[in-house]
Amino acid sequence: MGTDSTLAGKEVPIIGTDVFRWIELSVPSSSSNIPTAVDGTNATTIAPPTVDDRASCFVLEDPSAYLIWRIHKLQPHALELLELNASKELPKAGLRFIFPYQLCPFAFVCKNEISRNSRFPYLLYVLTVTGVAYLLKIRNVSAYASSALFPAEDLFELNVCDYVSNHVPITAVTATAGCVVVGRSDGSVCCFRLGVIDTSAPGFVHELRDEAGVSRLWGLMSRGKMVGAVQDMEISELHGKRFVFVLHSDGTLRIWDLSSHSRVFNHTVTGATFRRLWVGQFDPDSSTIPLSILYKHGLDEELEMISLHSIRYNFGERNVFSMDPSVQNITLEEGQCLDVKITLDKIWILKDDELVSHMLTTNVEEVEAFSYALQEEVVADQLFQSSEHQADEILQIACSIFSSSKEDVVPFISSIFLRKLLLPGVHHNAALHATLAEYSRHLPESDLQALTADGLKQEVLSLIEHEVGSEKLSILHSWKCFLTRYFHNWCKNNAIYGLLVDSSTDAVGLIRKSSVSIFRSLEDIERIVEGSSDEVGELTGLVDLLDDDLECEILVELLRCVMSFSQQLGKTASSIFYESVLTAPVISSEDIVHCIVKILETGSCISGPNEKELIDHKSLRKLSAEMFLSLQSLYRKASAWSRILNVIQGFLKFLVPQKIIQNFDTEVSSNINSSIIVHTTYQISKVMFESAWDFLLFLSYLVDIGGQVHLSHDDITKIQLEIVPMLQEIIFEWLIINFFAITPSAPATTEDFNSKLSSLHIDCNTGKQLWNEKLGRRDFTLAFILLLNVRSSSTDHGHLLKRFPNMQSFVNRMRDFISWIIWGQSGGSSNFLSRSIDLAFILFKHGQYEAAEQLLMMAEAHLLKEKTSQSIQESDGGWCIRQHLLGCCLLAQVQCGLHTTQKDNKVFDAIRCFFRSSSGNGASEALQSLSEDVGIPYLGFSGCASTAAWKLQYYQWAMQLFERYSISEGACQFALAALEQVDEAMKDENNPVNGSITTTRGRLWANVFIFALDLGRYYDAYCAIVSNPDEESKYICLRRFIIVLYEQGAIKILCSNKLPLIGLVEKVEQELAWKAERSDISAKPNLYKLLYAFQMHQHNWRRAANYMYMYSTRLRTEAASKDYQGSSLMLQERLNALSAAINSLHLVHPAYAWIDPPANGSSLLGEHYPSKKAKRIPEDHSADNDAEPERWQSCIDVEKLENEFVLTSAEYKLSLVNVKWTFSGKDGALSDLAELLVNNNLYDMAFTILLRFFKGSALKRELERVLSAISLRCCLDKVESTWVEEHGQLVTSSKLEMVVHGSPVTHHTTPQTDGSSCWATLKIYLEKYKEFHGRLPVIVAETLLRADPQIELPLWLVQLFKEGQKERMSGMSGRESNPASLFQLYVSYGRYTEATNLLLECIQSFASVRPADIIRRKRSFAAWFPYTTIERLLYQLEELTRKGHMVEQCDKLKRMLLSSLQNHLKTLKVDSEDAISVSS
């Protein structure tokens, strides 16, 4: 018998049951228990395999719990076990048992009543297809580790085949605590007391037979009348006895008493194919047991039916069971029957597409069916899968709304789809993971589960954008494909498995593949909107708002019009409206309503119609025509629009959230029931919101066509000024409730170390940690936070809270919760705007700063709509509190890691809110009345009588708040604002500010200085210093200013023209000097250099030179006390410092170009700087050039600085070749330095030292030493070079000043070892410096010959002796280095050939003069030759001849020499005679 069903309830998913962590436990098996066939091979399947998904639930009484098991047909080896407790949190993990063989579609889990060991609270019975039965003693979930082996000692294993002859197949199995019952294909039934007694003990196994009292193995005795194979079995307990109900395939129904092992009932039903058997809960009042049988009728094998029977029982001297003749047949029209549960008054039938309930009644002709909406319908509606055109409508409406800003269409549409996708109950982790995998996004499921809501949005949005690009039509197509795939995966991963029924509370739930849900009753508005409008007359609460039956009829017609209107664009439009309110609105909600009404009125959305749009246009025009006729009919029935409007107003009162006042005294805990209440709140708030939205659209449309339906001006005015504002208030309230129910909570904010330390309580942080773990989860929405702040009545915390309550209980609790949200704890809030402040306080207290901000912003936007013609500031200061709280929310968000742009925007908005809050009506009283426990930063002051005093205190509080969050921008602004209030606030004698005006202003200016400094606004910081009236504070800030500038590398600003240092120059210099004296000399920037630049900028040249010389002195001291590896760098720094000091003194008049030397241990902070009096030059200044330079006197002038510069340059040059030298000041130190420089090939520096510090004979002596040393180095290579490349830079006396005043040469001087280079060096320096000492060529030649008498003197050196012989008539005379000197050297060192040749050359040159020069040659004493040396030469040649050495060569030289001398003497005689003749 089939009947039309009435919608009676909805499925409410338990959010979070899709993300369990499964602990896998492998169940071991004994090899001896593996059944084998006759031939010795493994036996085939003897028990029915799992071909369909199966699940069931066992309800525990004490403790209250729900044990749910599932077997998936795709994983027949595994069984999942999950424990739920309605009064506790949702568990994080479940157990998954992996068996060695496939399981039968059966499992039984119960409380352990055998051993009653607390270690093993539960027992699990299963049977594999190989006939092996398992009894598992289950521990608590926390006792198992992931991927562990199930303990063998907790396992009982029984091979049923050992007790079955001929391996007869098993067709059915059931179990109860301590007993497993199996039925076979031959109709036999056997029970095993598994886990109670030993398998070998008598009475372990019993065959249920007609002969009582006999217990033997199967097949040994006759079983009486033959029956069909056992089709299904179920065990039920009545009055302490256990009975097994057995259904055979031939229709025979038997009942066996397990205690006596006897049959107590037998009945046969024919004419059908029987499939399943379900036994209900016995009714002690009527002594009946309801029983249902699933069968297929013989006439139509495709049609499934359920026959509902009643078995009466009578327990007297003997148990008597009888079948009631009345049978209630229920026809299952469509779909496959998955599960059936029977309670005292109802039968629940679960099909693969619906859940239906029927009342158990004796009147079989009048059976009313009740249906319950499944989640598939809700998800399809949310994902726009109910109609293929819904997604297209969103695009059309969005394009029409955003016609002026097309770039906003795509992100707006994506935002709608993302919000729908992540709704509670729609979002499913496994479904999303499978969908992403189809798009080749192989993200691990655990990683996907760990993502926040924002992370999921980014992941999905990036997939969509990557898939098709950013064109709007492509985006829509991509979203449609994605949502279609997701919905398919959602249905696949949420396949229906079985029912969850708690008979003690009448709770009904659904077990799905990867989730669990509970059913609830319908709210009254749902009965109308989703049920039938004919039910209006049955709703008592609504009928009471109407005056008579006519108004009830008007309401019915009105609801039909509105529903028809809504079905066209209402649901799609509501999604757009909802998104526009929750996101930053580009267009106002009023414009959205107007645009949608225009679409409905004109029947068009966008230009350029295609075929589909023409169809939509016709549909809209048809709707307009039907709506016009319906409104005309409604008007005729009511006879006046005023009456219709009254009915509308009455119905709208029905949509207003109910105000429920209760006595609350107990806090609500976080548990599964709370989750169900929250999701119920979302479902009902959604329906309420959409209903109110539909009426708003309808009324707006009605006003637009008012003239066509006889709507008067007064009626339009009433709609616009009374009904529409009422509707907007209702929409706003339900939208806020919906916002709370679906918005995920934000993660717990990271606390800094100080706050953690201050709140540290040993062993007391467990609750806080658990709370922080919940925050940020997608299933833990804002409504949970609010619900946990509700104080519930104590009656709700009895037996019902420990279990899932009945369907209506969730609706009742939802009403209480909504009433608390809208009206407050005692229902005392006059409107939701004032209530929003309390809710925002709660959210803020739990770290939900963004949600609190969004709530306050929505309340503010709604307030602006209501107060467009008057001030939005309430007289009680509520507006000020909202602004104050909003500022706190914005400020707190800044600490949560926002991006720079977002952070700056939040800071500026917070500053604006605090300023607005301080200036509102009643701000002082309202904000000072806030208690410390509201959760926001506490003001901590009171008693401000005047406005200025209040603002001063409030601005200082805001300044400190921003400072606490390290937001200097806001702190600086409020410090400046507080300064503006000081003068006026201090006039009040009763002001709470301590201290004088100067002290207060000084403190505030010091704060301004600190904040400006933190922001890097150095000019503002300096202005704050100058403006500070407190001298002590001013100088403290100045010192801090210099320190920060130094640390930030901005100290150079002091040397620019950006800061007017009027009156503070001396203080700045003192602070810089103090800092320089106590800073590391290697620190950067260097404060000595800064002081130099600072004084140069002030034109204080001597002070600048003084600081640079102090820097040089400190560098010298530091180098002496520490072993610096980079000594060359330090020396270069010293040179730079000395050079800067010299340059500075050159800018001073010569009479004042001196500085005082720094005394040992003296401070740079001395008050006495170098005086400007002229330096006295000692009269007894020594002019002795032979002495070394005198020691430094008390005053340091430019000359002394230049001397130190030269010495430091030498030290620097030596450091470059890794030679360490320090000037000791001892006698001979400079000579040693020159020698050291020469030894290291630093010739330029050596000659610079000589020319700088030696004069007269001392200089000549040192030049001889240096050139002699160079000459000796040349002797190492006897290569004579007649052409040498000139290189290097000679430092002569003319260039000395340039070296002293300039920077040192920093390139590395590489020692030259090449012979030609050495000779070239000798040539360069000898030619250049022979002007200082004429005998230098003689010294060089003598040194060379002394070192090697046989050395061949270079040609250029010989030419040096012949220089100045321009007039050949002078003979061998001339300068100090003349041919005679060279001739003497040749003779002295045995170089007779060279001496003879030189003499002959000179004599020949003398004789071969031009005729014009003869007269000059004849002058007296015009020519001179070293005749004595010539005689020595002749003597030496004779001695060599006499001794027989080189006789031939000596004779030749002697002949040449004598011949030349004779000719020369003749010439001289002639010249003498001529000279006498001339004189006479």
Model description:
The chain has 46 helices and 35 strands. A hairpin with a 2-residue loop joins β16 and β17. α30 packs antiparallel against α31, α35 packs parallel to α37 and α43 runs parallel beside α46. The longest helix has 34 residues. The protein is elongated.
Give a brief description.
The chain has 1480 residues and is an alpha+beta fold. It contains 46 helices and 35 strands.
Class by SSE composition: alpha+beta
Radius of gyration (Å): 56 Å
Unreliable spans are: 36-41, 212-224, 752-764, 794-800, 1161-1193, 1279-1313
Q: What is the 3D form?
A: elongated
Helix content: 40-55%
First and last CA, distance = 181 Å
Rounded mean pLDDT is: 80
Helix tally equals: 46
Strand order of the largest sheet: 25-26-27-28-1-31-30-29
Could you give a short account of the major beta sheet?
Answer: 8 strands, mixed
- Strand percentage, roughly? 5-15%
Number of strands: 35
